[in-house]
Fold:
Amino acid sequence: MKDLGEFWAAGKPTYDPAAIRAPTMLVVGEWDAITPPTMAPEIFRRLTAAKHRRMVVLSEGAHFMSNEKNRMHLIREVQHFLEEPAQ
Structure:
């Protein structure tokens, strides 16, 4: 966590999205102030090696969607992604 904080504060990436080859789902909450939805398209665009990728913005979601009132929406979206046939 210390390294992550130092990298984040310096504006340095901790990973390269272009190196990810696994199916990837990027989930963002509409109300997330920590990682706002405006950041997601750039990360999604850089997932060039992931053949199967998806970006979902969940309405009324903040940073801790799994603990929020609409968590079932998150769970359904993730389950649907995981159950899709491999491409």
